[in-house]
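Good morning N.,

You mentioned wanting to compare the apo and holo forms, so I went ahead and generated the holo version with flavin-adenine dinucleotide. This is what I fed in:
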Amino acid sequence: MSDHSAVVVGAGIVGLAAARALALKGYTVDLFERNPVATGASIRNFGMVWPVGQPAGELYNRALRTRHIWEHLAKAAGIWSDPVGSLHVAHTEDEWTVLREIHDQFLSEGRAVEILDAAALHRKSAIAIQKTARGGLYSPDELIVDPRQAIRLLPAYLSEKYPIRFHWGKPVTQVSGGQVIVEKKKMQADLIMICSGSDFETLYPLEFAAYPLTKCKLQMMRFMPEEKNQRIGAALCGGLSLIHYNSFKQAPSWEKLKRRFEMEMPDYIRKGIHVMVSQNETGALTIGDSHEYGLSPDPFDRQEINQWILEYLWTFADLKNARFIESWNGVYAKLTNGGADLFFSPEPGVYILNATGGAGMTLSFGLAEDRLSSILF
Ligand SMILES: Cc1cc2nc3c(=O)[nH]c(=O)nc-3n(C[C@H](O)[C@H](O)[C@H](O)COP(=O)(O)OP(=O)(O)OC[C@H]3O[C@@H](n4cnc5c(N)ncnc54)[C@H](O)[C@@H]3O)c2cc1C
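and this is what came out, ligand included:
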């Protein structure tokens, strides 16, 4: 047993990563999750561990480190993972120009990307439509996990391997003076880490309000491929994804492409739609998504948004006959100034850690280690 104690609030990926990082620093950790199982953004996502979307430098390096930790944890905890990489396809001349510019830039940064002409797309994807394609950019860095499985299995592994105790169905209703209050009982800890995701209202609401925070709602769908046991290959994205990720902004023709999408596809831009597909161990395809911002996300999903997503998907992926299974939405915390995370201390010994850039699966393990190292020497 170590001499130091910590409490973590929230069992989403950020809370799990924080608990792991604290245990590695020698802390005994009690983690409180208000629900009987985690049901937030961390089980609702694509499961894409996605370094290709991160700009060179700190964030890309953090994404690679997080991917490495995922690989290790997946093996150790029996979590399914698939290192399929990603494929962005271009179907217009301006998308193709941007892809080739990004390819050159990424190569100069040391990323192992590959440019494929239309005829070669089948080498990486069983579903990319070749007939109208100009080509694609393949990156080997991306790893897919099944978030519903991973977020369920990680706590069991972490509590077996490290001094981490999980307390399920236990909302933390107050934190002050180095104590957390759970079910009217007080618990003292040397360090308290709050990883409450998109809940800024329960703990330290005034302190959260000092930051430019909002929430982002995403609509998602799940399909089964027409052919039983079909594997699609690389996680696939269409041209709209080129204007979604910060890592692509450095392409000289990026602004021009963005303006064209704004003119030709205003509904897609208004609803923040870009379209990606990942596949899990059962063969199920996760397809999304949209991005709608505001502090009170609309609880109701819009059929027209799902329809727009599908219509765009069918322009680059041969999935018209896939079978619809379910739809859902998810919400994550977002900093309107574009910051990738929020880390601050509302009072001595208490820290807020939040992945605010919509890439918590990609960055959290590295993020938690980096932020803890900045306060614990
Ligand atoms: C639809 C969708 C798709 C996405 N796709 C990807 C992707 O493919 N790749 C990627 O990298 N990122 C993706 N993201 C982003 C990623 O899912 C999030 O960044 C990440 O899950 C945030 O994790 P979190 O732990 O902060 O939040 P959450 O998973 O929401 O967890 C917060 C937890 O804190 C608990 N909690 C809150 N307050 C309290 C309290 N007072 N007491 C006790 N418990 C409390 C909640 O119950 C919850 O379980 C996606 C997000 C969404 C919504």
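The chain has two domains: 4-45+148-205+338-375, 86-140+213-335.

Happy to go through it together on a call whenever suits you.

Best,
F.
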